[in-house]
TrEMBL record:
Membrane topology label: Single-pass membrane protein
Domain of life: Bacteria
Main location: membrane
GO cellular component: membrane
Full protein name: Neutral zinc metallopeptidase
Keywords of the record: Membrane, Transmembrane, Transmembrane helix
Pfam families: Zn_peptidase
Length: 297
């Protein structure tokens, strides 16, 4: 899914951070595949404080803010540079939810923070490394992404394609939407299994990512009056669907050479992640993404 070349990019909502070593301690944010990626690399589950959060903070200094203004000016830049693609994605997703969230829920959308980091980063949820994957920290209402994570998509059996990358950003934004609607505050981060609040949360975030895809080609850049994105092709949609399936609990277990145990699921099966992303793409609303009122989402 490509951006229209003539849109202008607003970099004010995106910052660069991190770059230092990661100190001991955990990350309490909600990630697309943080625990799963840790498991894939180490063959072990992360420490409990890594899953539910830790108060310990890294003493490493944050990388000074580098301006993206010179690098990321137009849709053409977004189509050729991954960090500029994230800037453009931030612009598009933000505009979409500015319009859609009040319409669906009566709640005014508040723009979350968005940080692109490398290696490690300090957050209000603790410290994080790139291996933990992209995540949303409710403590500072910020999405954190190390774009080098996208290289792992192929290792997980998906394509490192533009819409697959943007799906990841839109999924993390879905957790921000949950924070605004009060859903996130009700999650038991120690729960697991197909009916758990953790799985329901992750599947809803997948659906909310799909809702953005539904509106992406009609969401307009306010500076130019041009839609941010072109209509996605079937191949581009497939890349996003494959990314959702690739981070299913059962798929991660399979490629790690382990047997999948549904009772331990924290993000949902590949089939369920695919299913709920499709629900969002087809319907485009917050209300269609109700994973909470069904017996098993």
């Amino acid at each position: 899914m490509s951006f229209n070349n003539d849109i202008t990019l607003d970099t004010s909502g995106t910052r660069r951070g991190g770059g230092g070593k990661v100190a001991a301690g955990g990350i309490g944010g909600l990630g697309l595949a943080g625990v799963l990626i840790y498991f894939l690399f180490t063959g072990q589950l992360p420490p409990l404080e890594t899953i539910i959060g830790s108060a310990q903070q890294s003493q490493t200094s944050q990388q000074s803010q580098s301006s993206l203004e010179q690098e990321c000016r137009s849709g053409k830049d977004a189509n050729t540079k991954v960090e500029c693609r994230m800037v453009a994605g931030q612009n598009s997703i933000n505009e979409m939810w500015n319009a859609q969230l009040p319409k669906d829920t009566g709640i005014k959308h508040k723009t979350p923070g968005f940080t692109l980091f490398s290696n490690g980063v300090n957050t209000a949820c603790g410290t994080a490394s790139s291996q933990q994957g992209p995540f949303f920290c409710p403590g500072d209402d910020t999405i954190y992404i190390d774009v080098s994570f996208f290289n792992q998509l192929e290792r997980l059996g998906a394509k490192n394609a533009p819409l697959a990358q943007l799906y990841i950003l839109a999924h993390e934004w879905g957790h921000h939407i949950q924070l605004q609607t009060g859903v996130l505050q009700q999650i038991d981060h120690r729960s697991s299994g197909p009916q758990s609040s953790m799985v329901r949360s992750e599947l809803q975030a997948d659906c909310l990512a799909g809702a953005w895809i539904h509106h992406a080609s009609t969401t307009v850049d306010p500076d130019t009056g041009i839609p941010f994105m072109k209509q996605p092709t079937d191949a581009e949609l497939t890349s996003a669907l494959e990314a959702a399936s690739a981070v299913g609990d059962d798929h991660i277990a399979e490629i790690s050479g382990r047997r999948a145990n549904p009772d331990n699921f924290s993000h949902g099966s590949a089939a369920k992640r695919l299913e709920w992303l499709k629900v969002g793409i087809e319907n485009g609303t917050y209300n269609a993404c109700d994973t909470w009122s069904v017996p098993t989402p």
